[in-house]
Amino acid sequence: MSEHLDQKHAPPRRRPGWSAVLAAASAWLVAGCGGETLQMYCGAGIRPAADEAVAAFTARHGIEVACDYAGSEVLLSRLKISGRGDLFMPGEREYLQRAADEGLIASQHTVCYFVPVILVQKGNPRAIASLDDLTRPGIRLGLGDEKACAIGTVAAQILAKNRLDPARIDANVVFRSMTVSELGNNVKLKALDAAIVWDAVAKYFEADADAVPIPPERNVVSTVAVGVLKTSQRPEAARRLAEFLAGDEGREIFRKQGYTVDPPLAQN
């Protein structure tokens, strides 16, 4: 967020230089109309839709939004340490609930749902058809780091739910990521044979990778919600952004970007 420029009285009859005028104008533009700039902590896997949605919100309301994209666990730590910010939209509602349990959330709104899939190289050369295939010897598997991002936490829940042998899974894991996007990139670059990612992330990489569905009864669906932080200095503007993201226009942007906006038939 911009800082206000120091106000100094110019000598009588002397106009400020162009550099000062441009600096003041730049500061005003960065701050947005009415001096409102919102800071939103946002899960990295939400970025494609969030970028478009906040741009639409700014165009509609004239309020600038600065997004901090990272893994959900990382973001939760950042907002707690800084004691600043206006909104929090992690990749899994559990992180929002943890923040709420610590008294940090004023309100929250459901935006979309993440349905995990297995992302494989284009053409699926290793013939990976199910979760069980992830335990086959020699499969180069990528998973999110449970201590950094939501997809890591949810992937661990999926593996445990299906009682897959942890030793055989660990033997195949060659990469643990800080964000879900890193997993997609590594499958695209053929550094991984498979990774568990969100459905929307798989769609983003559809030109370079294929998605193998996980049956609903074997899957764990994540709810993505946005929360207004109690630390917000602009709670009314933050509430408007949260309602925009969860409203018809915001949901349509998420739908267009490949996110699931209607509750899946089977959850968790």
- Counting helices, strands and paired strands, the structural category is alpha/beta
Helicity level, as a percent range? 25-40%
Strand order of the largest sheet: 2-1-3-10-4
CATH class placement of the largest domain:
Alpha Beta
Overall average residue pLDDT: 88
Q: Which CATH-level-2 architecture of the largest domain?
A: 3-Layer(aba) Sandwich
CATH topology of the largest domain: D-Maltodextrin-Binding Protein, domain 2
In the predicted model, the low-confidence regions spanning at least 5 consecutive residues are 1-35
Our estimate of the beta-strand percent is 15-25%
Number of domain modules: 2
Q: Order of SSEs, N→C?
A: HEHEHEHEEEHHEHEHEEHH
Oligomer: single chain
- What value does the Rg take, in angstroms? 22 Å
Number of helices: 10
Distance between the amino and carboxyl termini: 39 Å
Shape: globular
- Classified in CATH, the superfamily of the largest domain is Periplasmic binding protein-like II
Largest sheet: 5 strands, mixed
Total beta strand runs = 10
Describe the structure.
By secondary structure, the protein is an alpha/beta fold. The chain folds into two domains: 19-113 and 223-256, Periplasmic binding protein-like II (D-Maltodextrin-Binding Protein, domain 2, 3-Layer(aba) Sandwich), CATH 3.40.190; 116-218, D-Maltodextrin-Binding Protein, domain 2. Helices cover 39% and strands 22% of the residues. It contains ten helices and ten strands. It has helices at residues 18-31, 47-61, 72-82, 93-101, 150-161, 166-172, 180-188, 199-204, 235-246, 248-256, and strands spanning 37-43, 64-70, 87-89, 105-114, 116-121, 141-144, 173-177, 194-198, 209-213, 222-229. It has a five-stranded mixed sheet with strand order 2-1-3-10-4. Strand 1 (37-43), helix 2 (47-61) and strand 2 form a beta-alpha-beta unit. Helix 2 (47-61) runs antiparallel to helix 10 (248-256). Residues 1-35 have low confidence and may be disordered.
